[in-house]
Amino acid sequence: MRVIKINTNPTYNVLVRDGLLNEVGSLVNQIKSYDRIAVITDSLVEKLYLDKVVTSFKGYSNQIFTYSFPNGESSKCLAELSKIYDFLAESQITRTDLVIALGGGVCGDMVGFAASSYLRGVDFINIPTTLLSMVDSSVGGKTAVNITAGKNQVGSFYQPKVVICDTNVLATLSDDLIADGIGEIAKYGVLEDKGLFDLLLKGKLFDNISEIIEICVRIKDEYVSGDVFDKGKRQLLNLGHTLGHVIEKDSKYTLAHGKAVLIGMFYIAQKFAGSSEIDLILQKIKAVAKKYNMPIDYKLSADELWASAGNDKKRHGDYLTIARPYAIGDCRLENVKLGAPINLTESVKESKFDIEIIPSKLSGSICPPPSKSHLHRLLIMSAFCGGQAVVSNVVLSNDIKATLNALKNIGADFVINKNNVTFSGFNLKNNAVIDCGECGSTFRFFIPICAMLGIKTQFIGSERLGERGYEDIITAMGSKVKFDKTSGLPLNINGNYDMDEITINGNMSSQFVSGIMLGAYASNKKISINLTGQLVSRGYVDMTIQTLKQFGCKVVEEKNSFAIIPKKIDGKQYDLMPEVDYSNLAFWEVGGVHLPIAQDNSKQGDKIVLEIVKKAEHGLAFDIDISNIPDLAPIFGVLLAKLKGTSTLKNCARLRIKECDRLAATCEILNAFGIKASIVGDDLVVVGGTVKGRVIVDSYGDHRMAMTAAILATFADGKVTVKNAQVVKKSYPDFWEDYVTLGGVINVVNIR
């Protein structure tokens, strides 16, 4: 006899051998001499094995009471459970007595739940009579019944005293019931293999059945013993089940559990296809399905099934945890936002992938995205406020993560809790390394901040970030701060800019000007900023001034100069929330979705998108000067493409020094979609026309180009593929989820 110890608390054994039904009485009485024993089975198993089990108790003093319910998944319900409670009461079963489940997974699940809840717990033994229940459901202590909302929605964790597997009973199973168990065995094969696929695919199943059962039970023990309550590793045992349970419910439980699980595994593996490891999983599942005459598809697609998975037990808030296969022996738990494609997991969002878009009209409503520009400023000011500050509705884009990491590396004390960041103090460091990633705001804000705090700092980040150069801030601070180069990264600075006046060129980047203002607050030093050249992107400097005033600073503006007079109030508490991000809102506005926005006094220059989109309603071409709103240029290219006639985006020079050359990229994307566009000097000329589909476009490694292509695709006449679509995480990590919420139809492909 094979004896497998299950290392839960309490422990118990799983016994595997032929002929064990004849020894049930002996095996039970080795545990305890129970006075009353209730044996509960279904109508089919009753005819086959109930008498044999009852007879095994002859010679023992146990009083045996029996009950059967109609065979089938439809009996696994609250109504039938109530009848079992009545039977136990009528049989005068007490807490010192025993309940035995004799049957397949339905019986074990429901009777186990009855035993766990009747009188708050009666001892329970499981005698599985199907292959599925022997290899899976009888072990681990999960008990449950189904309700209208879904499968296994009401249940408990309750371990049996012993599990008794008589392999002789498997000979009476139909091919369908054998296949039902094969689905779960294949699951264990994908999770760990341990020779299971060879045993399934080579030779006759029953020649190796005891070995197969033992392998599956031992694998399950590895996953269950350290996670009885299904909070971590055990959830991997749900591989294929998220979609499988929906299939079962949709089929009104006419499709058996194991078959549904096999389809669910195949579907989920397909969704993450693209590697040789996933190809091998698909190959193995196909081979198993072929040998045992099992389906690997269903009338509903994976996406349609996923849309109905919201009531799954693994849901937490707006997310659902799925088991994602990477390779045989390598499956991992990953979270997916409900409403997003099933393979757009949080982990995938950190990988590289492409998006296939089926053109569809966008409509509906989402929560408008918070302003990344405002968030940078709020977070920096909060870190230095001298009291406690809570910033809420924080979207952790890559750029915002860069600023938070920069603050942490120079001494800020804060805690992130979901979408809130709470600041509680500052312990200034003398040296720091700041990884800006691709974030120009972090880079250009923290150079003056660190210089004015006297922090010896090394700045690292993407190659593109350093290409733009930083001569303006070197010229402004070079008398007091040493810079080891004039362009490129890494950049090392050393010194302390402690002067009360600074002169800087304002016509290249307003971010250095804002950085000096923020540095004045951080260092608590009054400073006068003198500008040479015309200040570009004035709206963002106004946003900085507005934020400074929110924290008690005085800002005096004169012609071509600003005086910053910090005023910190120790112990004051700030509760802060960022404005709406008009630069990201622009994508939805141009896409035809006009989100409700509360009246605000935002200084964002990009707020003009509301006026421009309104102006475009007449459908006729017009020109747009984007010199002070460069972030809107790509999406305004889409807007002009829909107008009749020739329009021009004017003064686009600054687009060439963004994350990519956005002027060239916008022109190329428009042309790829069949829209005639050309660059004339620093202008982009766009001739409105029909947007063509069946195209593949690159994101150019730029979040705004990916989102621009996505909106343009909604007007196309055929499928569109956006390559390297993961780049949206730089500023708008939930863009694709919001796109789907608003009616966009996408497939995540080529995950790598």
Molecular structure report:
The chain has 752 residues and is an alpha/beta fold. The protein is 37% helix and 23% strand. The chain has 26 helices and 32 strands. It has a four-stranded parallel beta sheet with strand order 4-3-5-6, with helices on both faces. Strand 23 and strand 24 form a beta hairpin. The protein is elongated, with a radius of gyration of 33 Å. The mean pLDDT is 96.
Number of strands: 32
Principal-axes geometry comes out as elongated
End-to-end gap: 47 Å
Alpha-beta classification: alpha/beta
Question: Counting H and I runs of at least 4 residues, what is the number of helices?
Answer: 26
As a whole number of angstroms, the C-alpha radius of gyration is 33 Å
- Low-confidence regions: none
Features:
single chain, 752 residues, alpha/beta, four-stranded parallel sheet, 37% helix, elongated
Explain the layout of strands and helices.
Layout: E1 2-6, E2 12-17, H1 24-31, E3 36-42, H2 43-55, E4 63-69, H3 78-90, E5 98-103, H4 105-117, E6 123-128, H5 131-137, E7 142-147, E8 150-157, E9 162-166, H6 175-191, H7 196-201, H8 209-224, H9 241-250, H10 257-271, H11 276-291, H12 302-306, E10 315-316, E11 319-327, E12 330-337, H13 346-349, E13 354-358, H14 372-383, E14 388-391, H15 398-410, E15 412-417, E16 420-426, E17 431-435, H16 440-453, E18 456-460, H17 463-467, H18 471-477, E19 481-483, E20 491-495, E21 501-505, H19 510-523, E22 527-532, H20 538-550, E23 554-558, E24 561-565, E25 573-576, H21 582-590, H22 609-615, E26 624-625, H23 633-641, E27 646-650, H24 662-672, E28 676-680, E29 683-687, E30 695-698, H25 703-713, E31 720-723, H26 735-741, E32 745-749
Parallel strand pairs: 2-9, 3-4, 3-5, 5-6, 14-25, 17-18, 21-22, 26-27, 30-31
Antiparallel strand pairs: 1-2, 7-8, 10-11, 11-12, 13-31, 13-32, 14-16, 15-16, 18-20, 19-20, 22-24, 23-24, 27-29, 28-29
Helix pairs in contact: 5-6, 5-8, 6-10, 9-10, 10-11, 14-15, 14-20, 15-16, 16-19, 19-20, 23-24
